[in-house]
Structures are given as C-alpha cells and as structure tokens.
C-alpha cells in the first residue's frame, strides 16, 4: 500500500502519485502512524475509446478520390494523345516528298522546222512577181436575166496599155421567156464593145457600140460593169443598159 505524505490518503500499489494533489506516494510502512486511520482508495483507470469514422462516410470519400484520380488519368491520356497526333502531323508535313520511281515522260518539244529560229544565213527564196491583172485574152461564160433568158458568151478583150479596152462578145441564145424569140434558141450574134480598165480596182467598164446579128433581132447593144479577180482568172459583174439587169460571169 502507498500513502500520500501530504494528505495521508492511502492508495494501492499501482498508483505512483496522489490523485488529489499529485504528490509522490510512499509506501505506508515508511511513515504511517498507527493512530492515523487509513482509507484504501482504489481508482480504476478507464480507457477512452477513440471514435471510429462512420463506414458510409469513408466509402463516399474513397469514391470521390477514385473519381478525381480517374479524371486526372483521363486528362493526362488525352493530352498525350493530342500532342502525339500533332507531332505526327508536323512530321508528315515536313517530310520530303518521296521520289517518283516511275520514269517521267520527256516533255521537251522535238526540234522541227516550225519551231527552229530562222537562219539568217539561209538563202531567201526569190519573190514571185506580182500577177499582172489584165482583161487581155479570150474569156468564156454566160449571162442570165431575171426573166429566165440566158446566153452563152465568148468574149475577147484587148488592153492598149493606157487603160483603153476594146473587144467583142459572141452571144448564143440558150433559152428565152419571150415567145417571139423562141425560134431563135441556138442562134448567135456578135456585139462589139469598148471602154476602160482601172488596174487599181480591177474594174472593167465597157459598152456595146455595134452588132453583127444575122437574125436582126437577137441582141441589142448594152453596158457592162465587170470586176476581174485578184488572180486574173475570172470576170464577174452585170449588165445595166437594157430593161433588165443580167448577171455576167466569165473565165479565162
């Protein structure tokens, strides 16, 4: 047994200090008087349990932590994949184009006489003399009228060189709409003409001044305005002195 020297209260041996004033306890035999009443006091130490967290709250906390961790992992994976895709795209853009192993067609234009530069040393071909356009010579053709009558024509013109022209035309009746001349189809008569020729415009203007007509009624003297072609091979125009205008066409 132990007692407190201050308050003389007795305690059991498992106590070291006075529970009243905290004085160090001593064994009772060391200074306990026989006249002093003793009271054995035994205090039972009580243990206070620490409250444990509620199981439901713990589960919710763990669930929230798991959700946050999953979200962080997902964000990390997304960022990694995005950066990897961008890196691959940049590598594709910066990579040099692969060399084409197929043979390329030769696009060079072959040298031809049409695309070679002119040779200044080549001999220049002599220029052909310009065709001299003149009414001189013999011409054959026909003349037709709106009435339906038509004649074949054999003309001969002579240019004196001063622009003066003379000649003759042999007319042969091919068809007629005039009943009085129906019997003259196939007959011929000659008309004598004269006039002038303008070489600048190739215009031949002649007019009849006499006839040699065995029938006496086949042809009349007329006026003609004609144009010679640029190659001098044909004459075309019209007559304008009679009652109707005839279309005149001749070839050399």
Can you characterise this structure?
The protein is α+β, with helices and mostly antiparallel strands and 252 residues long. Among the domains are: 1-44, no CATH class; 137-251, Beta Barrel (Lipocalin). Helices cover 16% and strands 30% of the residues. It has 1 helix and 12 strands. It has one helix spanning 55-94; strands spanning 2-3, 10-11, 26-27, 40-41, 137-144, 150-159, 164-175, 188-198, 203-212, 223-228, 234-239, 247-251. An 8-stranded antiparallel barrel has the order 5-6-7-8-9-10-11-12. The radius of gyration is 72 Å and the shape is rod-shaped.
How many beta-strand segments?
12
Task: Classify the helix fraction into a percent range.
Answer: 10-25%
Structural class computed from helices and strand pairing: alpha+beta
Rg for CA atoms: 72 Å
Q: How far is it from the N-terminal to the C-terminal residue, by CA? A: 172 Å
User: Strands of the largest sheet, in order across it?
Assistant: 5-6-7-8-9-10-11-12
Question: What order do the helices and strands follow?
Answer: EEEEHEEEEEEEE
How many helix segments? 1
Residue-averaged pLDDT:
80
- Assembly level: single chain
CATH topology of the domain at 137-251: Lipocalin
Biggest sheet character: 8 strands, antiparallel, barrel
Q: Based on Cα principal axes, name the global outline.
A: rod-shaped
How much of the residues is beta strand, in percent?
Answer: 25-35%
Which segments are poorly predicted (pLDDT under 50) over 5 or more consecutive residues?
31-36
